[in-house]
Structures are given as structure tokens and as C-alpha cells.
Design goal:
- By secondary structure, this protein is an alpha+beta fold.
- It folds into two domains: 3-242, outer membrane lipoprotein receptor (LolB), chain A (Clam); 266-369, no CATH class.
- Helix content is 16%, strand content 34%.
- The protein starts with a helix and ends with a helix.
Length: 371
């Protein structure tokens, strides 16, 4: 697994935010009469989406979240409601993502060789060196984790993951951000153990790139989460958007840096693995070394945060786990369980993490199988 995919997997497995990572971006349904488009079969549409070439574009993405999660410190997108983001991509593996925050913004810039993360609130820059060319997958699960700056790619990779274990159909046409689209519907086969009833992917009729992703939970007729654009412009982008220079006075650090004293614990961490396939895939990983149980140290709180009785910040992953999780135990050990309409996460007391769009029983079985 290359560094970009490892970093994204660790982010999903590192905190309860991994559940939110089942979908972060959303948009409302199209309006007006459905466009008239040439007929296509489900098989043809799936193949055209999976083989669609990356396209240079920019757009505004809206978050409509009905997962039922509480508002988490430092992660306002977790709570039910609507937020927006801006995205840019040059179609050549370079991209930019801007996420507004209460007191600033977080910006992610992938320049093709380095992934830069800028937090204007803390004036911190984190850089993650990348390989010049994408690494070849070592197994069937690699490549299914999304590019942080390209939501269209994320939907494309999701489709590749569940297509073979789904019943696929085309449910007419629609409009997304003023562009005509085909509505592709994926329903899990009866053998799949998942919390999801169906996923709908709106594919742009011209480019075939996914421009909307709607996730429906079992027992609900309304989407728990939707992914897409409210404004979308296809075409060349300014190359300056994909270059990043740390602002004067910013703190710059590398993503693989460990605070002093954490290096021994870092060796205990392993790369995330996947147990199962299709709709009941479970991502297994570990909390970052500095967040492992037993490694807590006094933390100086930023404004608006507090420290618990162990001296941990209220934004520390383990502090969040213990505050919002439901205690649970089994043959695999003990830990805390988190549930939403479309996914479940399990964090064990020894720092292991399991995340999936599955019931809790599937998580505990998977974490027992993981090595």
C-alpha cells in the first residue's frame, strides 16, 4: 500500500471519524424534467464509469449529513447538517480541497509528489511525501481508498469495490449541477451482511465520472448521506492551484514524525488491512502511536478544549473514544463501539480499530480474524 493510501486508511482507522469517512460530501437531488439520453444497460454504464478517464474540473460540494452522530470536537462535519467544500483537480493526479471551519479552513493540496495539509486555525502544515507513480496493488483490496482531494475518484473506487457483490440497475436520468446524468443503482446481494439498502451513483453523461453518491440505510427511504456537486465546471485549471508554499510563520512537520518517546510504540503499529470483500468489507488498523492507550501525556489545550483526568486534550482520539463510545467486550478483548445509520466502528482497549458499513457482529468477527 503506497503512502497516500496508507495515510488515508490510518485517518479512517485512527478515530471515530472513520465512520464519517463512509461519506463526507453531499448534494440535493436534481430539479426539472429528466434529461433525454441514449439508453444504456447497467453493465455498459458500470464499465464506462470504471474506465472513465480523470477529468480536469472544479466545483462546489455540499454536505448533507443525516448519520445521527454527535458534534465531535475538531470535526464539525460529523454532526447532522449541511456544510460545503471546494474541490479542484487537473485530471493528472493533482488536486486541491478546501474545507471551511468555524474559525478558518483546512486545505489539502496534492501536487503529484507531496500531499500538503494546511490548518489555518493552528497554523500547522503537514506534508506527506508521495511516490511519483502510483504503486501497483499487492492484493485485491489495494486502491479502494479514496484520493483525499478527488471525491469523484472516491465514488469510482467505491463502485469497483462493491460491483461484483451487487445487483445493478439503471434508474433513468437526472440533473446534477446543471449536467445530465444517468442514475446507477447498486443493491447488495442477499449474501451480503451490511447496514446499507442501496447506493446510487449519478454518472455524468459526457465524461462518465461520478458526480453524486447517495447512500441509503436499511429501513429508510431517505438517504442517510449523499455525495456530489452543486456547481461543476469541466475544463483546464490554473496550475498554481496545485502548488503549495507554507505561509510565513507556519509550523511545518512531516506526517511520519513521532513525538519523542513514541518511536518504540510506533513499531507496534501495522498497516491497515481489509477483512472480507464487497459490502461487508471491514478495515482493520491501529490508532496512531501517540494515541495508543498507556501513552497519554499532559497536553496543553487549545482555546475551546479541555483536558480529562489523565491530562489528555478533549480532541485526543482516545479521549473521544471513551467519551462517545459504548463499552463492549468479547473473545477479541474489550473496547468501545460506535454506530451510525450506515456504518459501525470498534476501538479496542489495546488500540486496534475496525470500521465498516456492517453490523457490530461482523466487526467483532473481522477483528478476531485480523493478524
Amino acid at each position: 500500500m503506497n503512502r497516500r493510501r496508507t495515510a488515508l486508511a490510518a485517518a479512517a482507522a485512527g478515530t471515530v471519524a472513520g465512520v464519517v469517512g463512509l461519506g463526507v460530501l453531499a448534494m440535493p437531488a436534481g430539479a426539472g424534467p429528466a434529461p433525454s439520453l441514449p439508453p444504456t444497460s447497467p453493465e455498459q454504464l458500470v464499465q464506462s464509469v470504471l474506465t472513465a478517464k480523470p477529468t480536469a474540473m472544479n466545483g462546489t460540494v455540499q454536505v448533507v449529513n443525516k448519520l445521527g452522530l454527535p458534534a465531535l470536537p475538531g470535526l464539525p462535519q460529523a454532526a447532522d447538517g449541511t456544510t460545503e467544500a471546494r474541490v479542484w483537480t487537473d485530471g493528472q493526479r493533482r488536486g486541491r480541497l478546501s474545507l471551511p471551519q468555524n474559525n478558518g479552513e483546512k486545505v489539502y493540496v496534492d501536487d503529484g509528489s507531496t500531499l500538503w495539509q494546511w490548518d489555518s486555525t493552528t497554523r500547522t502544515v503537514t506534508r506527506s511525501p508521495q511516490h511519483a507513480e502510483p504503486a501497483k496493488p499487492k492484493d485485491k483490496h489495494e486502491g479502494v481508498l479514496p484520493n483525499a482531494t478527488d471525491p469523484a475518484s472516491a465514488a469510482q473506487q467505491m463502485l469497483a469495490t462493491v460491483e461484483k457483490t451487487s445487483t445493478v440497475s439503471v434508474d433513468g436520468t437526472d440533473w446534477v449541477a446543471g449536467r445530465p446524468v444517468y442514475d446507477l443503482v447498486l443493491t447488495p446481494k442477499p449474501t451480503e451482511r451490511t447496514l446499507l439498502r442501496e447506493v446510487r451513483v449519478a454518472a455524468d453523461s459526457e465524461t462518465r465520472i461520478p458526480v453524486r453518491l447517495s447512500v441509503f440505510a436499511n429501513g429508510s427511504s431517505d438517504p442517510a448521506l449523499q455525495v456530489g456537486f452543486t456547481q461543476l465546471t469541466i475544463g483546464p485549471q490554473d496550475p498554481k492551484l496545485f502548488r503549495f508554499t507554507p505561509p510565513p510563520g507556519a509550523t511545518v512537520r512531516n506526517s511520519d514524525e513521532q513525538p519523542q518517546g513514541d518511536h518504540e510504540k510506533a513499531g507496534q503499529s501495522s498497516r491497515p488491512t481489509v477483512v472480507g470483500d464487497g459490502w461487508d468489507s471491514v478495515l482493520i488498523g491501529r490508532l496512531p502511536a501517540q494515541a495508543q492507550p498507556g501513552t497519554s501525556r499532559p497536553v496543553t489545550s487549545r482555546p475551546g478544549t479541555s483536558n480529562d483526568r489523565h491530562g489528555r486534550s478533549s480532541e485526543d482520539p482516545m479521549a473521544l473514544v471513551q467519551r462517545f463510545g459504548t463499552p463492549t467486550s468479547g473473545p477479541w478483548g474489550s473496547g468501545w463501539l460506535f454506530s451510525t445509520k450506515v456504518g459501525t466502528a470498534l476501538v479496542t482497549s489495546d488500540g486496534r480499530v475496525a470500521v465498516g458499513a456492517v453490523p457490530a457482529q461482523v466487526l467483532t468477527e473481522a477483528i478476531g480474524q485480523a493478524k
